[in-house]
Amino acid sequence: MGGKHKQAQRTKNNARPSSSCRSAELLGTSIPQFVGFSAIKESTVMSGFALTADDIDSSIDPNFQLVLKKMSKKDATTKSKALQEFTELVKTSDIEVVKAVLPFWPRLYCALATDTEHKVREATHVAHHQVVLKSKRNLAPYLKQFAGPWFTSQYDTYAPAATAATKSFQDAFPKNKIKEAILYCQEEILLYICENLTIHTAETLSNPKITSPEDAEAKYQRVLISSLHGYALYLQQLCTKEIENQEELNIKIISDNKFWKFVKHKVLSIKSAWFCVITSLCQKSPNFLTKEFARIVGSVFSHLDESEPTVVQSLWEAILSVLSTIKEWWQYVNIDKAVYPKLWKLLKEGGFGNACVIFPNLLPLISHLPPNTDPNSTFCLFFEHMFKGMKHQSSTRSRYESLAISTAYMECLQYIIMKNHFDIGFCEKLIRSYLFPVLEWSLTDAQASYKGLFNQISKIIQYWSKNSSNVNFPHYVKYSQYFWNNLNSLFQGLLLNLEIAYDKEMLSQFSSRQIELLLSLKHIVANKQLKVSFGTEEVTENVNNDNHNSSSLHMDQSYMESLHDVVYKTCVSYVKFINEKHSKELVECLGSLVQDFDSEYFFKRLNAEVEGENVNENITNIYWKLLNKWLNNKTICSNSVITLVFLLFKYLNYEDKVEVLNSFILLQDTECFGWCISQSLSHPYNEDSTIQTWLHNDAVSKFLTSIMEKELYDTSTPELQLILKKAFMEKHNGDLYLSANAVSSIVQVLNKCLLHHEKYTITVDTCVSFAAHVSTILYSTNYKLQFGDELLLAMFNLCCSSTVDPDIISVDTIWELNTAWQDAITVLSQELSWDEFKKLCSKCAGIVTNAVFSDTHDYNINHMIKIIVSFIKCMNCSPLRICDVLNLFLLREFIHPWKDTLVNACICAEYMLGHLCTPYESISFEYDLNETIINKYFIWMDLVAHVLTTPTMDEVENDDDTDVTINTVQTIFNLVYSSDIQELLVNLLESLTVSMIFVEHYSCTKHSEIVLTRKNSMQQKLKSIFSIMDEQSLTKIENSIKENIVKNNGLSVKLFYLYCSEIVSKSLSEEFTNLFKQYDNQNMKLICLHLTQAFSKCVNYQQVYNCPNDTESIIYLRTLMHLEDLEIPIAETFKKITNISQETKSYFLFESNIVNSITWSQVELIIECMRLFSTMLKYKSNISSNQWDFIIITFVTWTNNIANFKYKFRSLQMKTLIGALSELFVSVSEYIKSCDKESVKNEWNEVFAQDVNKDFVEMWLYISASYEDKSNELPIVDLPFLQTFGTIVDHLDYKVLFNNPNQKLPKWSKLVTQSCLLLTHSVYILQLWGYHMLQTLILGLVEVDLAAVTTNTPHEKGLIFKQFSVTVCSIQDVVGSLLVEFKLGDDSCKIEPYTDSYTYTSAYFLLWDILLSLCEYSSTELRYQYADWLRKENLLNNLLDNIYKLMPVEVMNHIEGKNKQLVDLFSSKFSVNLSGGCSSRHIEHMVCWCYFSALSQLPALVRQWWSQKEPRISQIVEKVTATFISPQLCSREFGEIIKNETKFKNMVIKVHPSVREVVAVYTVDEAQMELVITLKNNYPLTSPEVQCNRQISGTSHRQWLMQLKMCVLHQNGRIWDALSLWNNNLDKKFDGVEECYICFAVLHQGTYQLPKLSCHTCKKKFHSACLYKWFSTSNKSTCPICRNLF
């Protein structure tokens, strides 16, 4: 639109536009011969070379031909790529192939090396480098062709290109051959340089047709720079004689006018390069310049005031070279007009910011000035302008610039004075006018860089003093004295000015610089030989005569006297000033000055000044008349006054020292007193015995204690902290400087902080660090426990705390603390007796125990393990005590009582579950088992195992893929003999056995998971320990275990089995055989029984067959029932049991008349018979009818009799009896279900089931009611019984409970009520009792409601749901109050197990699972009523709100992908196993499952709830549903449809799961009606999309579709229900339809309409289309049937 038309690329004969790359590709390797560059158009050829076909050898490699052609292109990118390809070809090709290319490479290289594009130049040199490396000597014939560009390209302005060229040049020739190569090619190099400098222009160097003027100019400048630098390099590399061989070319370059114009070139780099050439010419070939002296001098000095940093360096090199080359250079230039003005300007401006480069060259410059120079005028101007430059802004801002100017200034001044030393007036003028003004400026000006200047002044004065005796310089003494006199006057005058003005800041600045000057004068430095060096040829000007005594570093006495006199006078001035102005700042300077120039003579002179006429040799008067007054003056008093006092102190006698020290105590200022103590504790004053005695003074001790208290309360200062640290230094004899009372007081303060560190959060880090420091001093070989163990124990106690905030106590400080107590223990373990050290260890062990049980989290336990191990490692120097200390720490007194309690609980559980029989003696649980004991005991024993297996090295280098075990790493166990810790190892084995039993039988307790974790950890550690024990040690351990088998009641047998099977992996059958024989021979029947029960998996029945006792034989048989071929032993045992039942029927059947007299053994016989029957029914399927009859009759009798004594269930044996009966009931029920005999099932259902169910339900009701009292804590030993008895609920028959006419049977409503009560019980297993009972009643409850709905006779209490209303609402209120502060969708509440919150939350979801299960098993009509009731009561909405407040965070935040564990939370139901424990994850599983169930059973209500939520919450709900639930529900829907798709007669259903689509086609005759249902990805939140693609005309499909949608959307119907409804509507419609009497079809083939038109006479119906065709073809309007007029 209005723009310029783009010109199309040139084409020829309708061909594609030209492309160089494509052309090159098409050439490939098929080119027979490289025809050179003559055929290339001029516009594409680089200027500077042209090749013809005759110049090229046809044998060149085609790949190289192609690359060389690309190099000739004008495009820079093409050339760069071609050069890269060329480099690779050279690198990979054979040498012969490369040799063929060499003749053509020089011309290309010469052109490309100066290309306008820097990348091309770099690539060219890289390629050339590869050619050099490949061809080596073969390159020699062509060397001269590219020598010029190659040599000068080393100074290419593009650094990478220059580097590549230099690298190629260096690699081409050895270091010793480079000079020869340059010499070989010097003519070509010089010709190339000469042409570039004298002939070429920007236009001649580039092709104007293809190069822009800007690029051409840039190329020309670049060539000039590289040529000039290359020329300079050429001159430097060759010697003068070799250069003169090419005199003609060199003269040609130098004499050309164009060469001399470069000095004025606008490009700075060209000017700099030109000056480099001049420097090289002056140094190497000065003969060439003989005729050009005037030009050189004029060109160089005309730029003397050059300010550009790029040019300055090379310019001044050229200036110095010219000065050294042209002896009388001033003859060629007007020095007054051309040199001095520029020099003064340069000096006055401070070198224009280039002082570091320029000013070091000024001394050589003035040394070459004309001899007739007037020093009075010239040098005065010189120093005057240089002083101005020194004060210039550019100089004062940079320290280096200022130092360079000041150094040059003083060197030039020293040089001028040396040259004119005979002229006293002139030299004194220089000192007076140009030395002291600079000195005064440096002392007073804030911007002056004074330190360097002071050092230079000191060098001059020291130089004069050292050479004062030199006969050649007799006036140096006068100059030195002149300086000292004027210096003192200068000081006095400046101080007087300050006294008048009295500016504190100026005073402080002046005094500090004054001291700096005096210190510089005091510091002796060796003068250096000052030289002016010019390249390789040196012209040396010795500033110092050879006779000067410059090597001496010792000044003569007059110099030091003069210096001290100045210092003394300065101090006197300071004292007067201080007394008058009370200047604290000057006191500090006075103290510093006196300290630096300390001497007794000085104090004597000062004393004379203070005393005046009444002078007294006792210099203590200085203190009383001067320093003491200053100490008591708050304005003057400072640490510097104390410094002055102690400088004086060493010159006093003993009495005066005591008097001065005691006066410190009387000082009112505590800060000043602290300075006194600090100075007393400093070296060398602390070596004075008088001071050491004074430090034990009570006032000093109180002051040090107060410092510690200030430190504790954060009111201390760094100075006071330093005093406190100094106080704990040791003397040479090992004693402390402070007293024992002071130490005790300070330790008490430290202990307060260490033991209550949380109160002192601000200062605790500092105090702890100081405590560690003090500990290293107090607990040493010298003192041992002289100062008590309180500090050590406090430090150890703090280290045992794992909750120390690193922001309060830093990691470094904790490391200091750990190191301190470990060092102390190491020392004390060697120095103390065992009794003393044992007491200390006992205290430490007590601290460890308290720390372990105060916080039982893993991080704290691991921390304590490290502490114990560190303590043991401290005993390496006392290895004999390690075992005792280890037992002291690990074998604590609480282990045995805790173990006995747990052992008793485990034995009770084993007994109740039949794993440990006690047929002879009764057992009972006599301990009060506190659940905290469980956790503590196993944590401690796991800690013991960890300690024994912890590596003793500080760090173990361990790769991720390799395991470091006890076998490869030195551990604590390796430090002791196993026999010494045998009791500890046996205790560990016992705790492992107890933990295994506990985890097995008490898995539903609070600490079961912790015990399981500890058990696995202990087992692993014990395996590693026993794996490295020798046979002798193992034998001792085994003997100890076997001894315990005889003493203990069953647990040791379990221990031995665990030891053999899990720890050392022995042969179980062999070990059992040996032990069984041993104890059987000793008639230890009970041990044999226990052995058999423990080793049952590896016992043969023949080993235990010979048993005369009936009870024992029953136990042996039921223990080994898993074995084969036991028919005979079973028959024999049954015969014994039959005889027993006949002989002692009342006792055997547990009849009521003998209950009070029955013995323990008789009850045990009943229990073992029950267990025998249970195992028989479980393992044996071929039970005879006689055996079955005996079992079932006995079982029913037992059930009836035991139920009568259910009130006695609290006793341990009665629990065991009821538990065994429950197991038998479960076995009988499962046997009957799996039995193939109908007679057995009928007999059970008709005769026994009712009574048995009644008895167990009554027992269940009684026992559950007994535990309703929540105030009494449930004994832990009851849990195995509750688990066993609870299993009967799942095997109760709901039909018996609901349909039994027996009035004695408890009504189901009572069971519902009791179950609802149990749901809120604090014991989770009783909650599950209620839940399982309700699950058993579900089908019966649904049948009750279904019967009421079907017969339209409502239950007196309404729907079953209403009976749960009170329970649901009460629990919901509690859960709602718990979650009230959580926002929906934002926060997720995590319910901690074994809390009231957990109890009510689990009850809430258990009850809701029952309600949703009722919906699942109900009919469509009943489900609608359930849903309607939930909607009215608003219960489901509350449930869904609570679900999303409890939904796992990872579920709500899960965005992409599917996590199998998260999906399982929704797809699988939560565990309701009676032995299961409580966990937060279990609640989360309940939450997810209930949400899944709600969506499955009541989607319409969930959808309604979702639609009412705000968008943010609805998005979260939708995301969770679409990710975790929709795929499963869709899959379930499709599976149900596929399962029932064959049930329809006229409808065919197709399921497409990949697109979530169901297609139903209803066929009537040849007509079809198609229904497509598509499920959305968030189904069922969004309703399915329903479409009727093909319809049958005349049908009311809209009404049917409406019904279908209503079924799915509002009636909680499933897709299958909707399809059934649609199919039924169509079937009903088409079943009564009469077919058309013309086409004899119900639906018309074309219109798919039903017959509508009927004859008024015969009443027959026809399709309208058929009737129309009939009328049109027959030309009649009569009925086709009756022929009457239609």
From TrEMBL:
PANTHER family: E3 UBIQUITIN-PROTEIN LIGASE LISTERIN, ZINC FINGER PROTEIN 294. E3 ubiquitin-protein ligase. Component of the ribosome quality control complex (RQC), a ribosome-associated complex that mediates ubiquitination and extraction of incompletely synthesized nascent chains for proteasomal degradation. Keywords: Cytoplasm, Metal-binding, Repeat, Transferase, Ubl conjugation pathway, Zinc, Zinc-finger. Residues 1-21 are annotated as: Disordered. Its EC number is 2.3.2.27. GO terms for cellular component: cytosol; RQC complex. GO terms for biological process: rescue of stalled ribosome; ribosome-associated ubiquitin-dependent protein catabolic process. The lineage of its organism: Eukaryota, Metazoa, Ecdysozoa, Arthropoda, Hexapoda. Residues 10-21 have a biased composition (Polar residues). Pathway: Protein modification; protein ubiquitination. The keyword Transferase applies. Transmembrane segments: none annotated. It holds the Pfam family Ltn1_1st. It is found in: Cytoplasm, Cytosol. Component of the ribosome quality control complex (RQC). It catalyses: S-ubiquitinyl-[E2 ubiquitin-conjugating enzyme]-L-cysteine + [acceptor protein]-L-lysine = [E2 ubiquitin-conjugating enzyme]-L-cysteine + N(6)-ubiquitinyl-[acceptor protein]-L-lysine. It is an enzyme of class 2 (transferase). It comes from the Eukaryota. One of its GO terms (molecular function) is ribosomal large subunit binding. Residues 1636-1683 form the RING-type domain. It comes from Pyrocoelia pectoralis. Belongs to the LTN1 family. CDD domains: RING-CH-C4HC3_LTN1. This is E3 ubiquitin-protein ligase listerin.
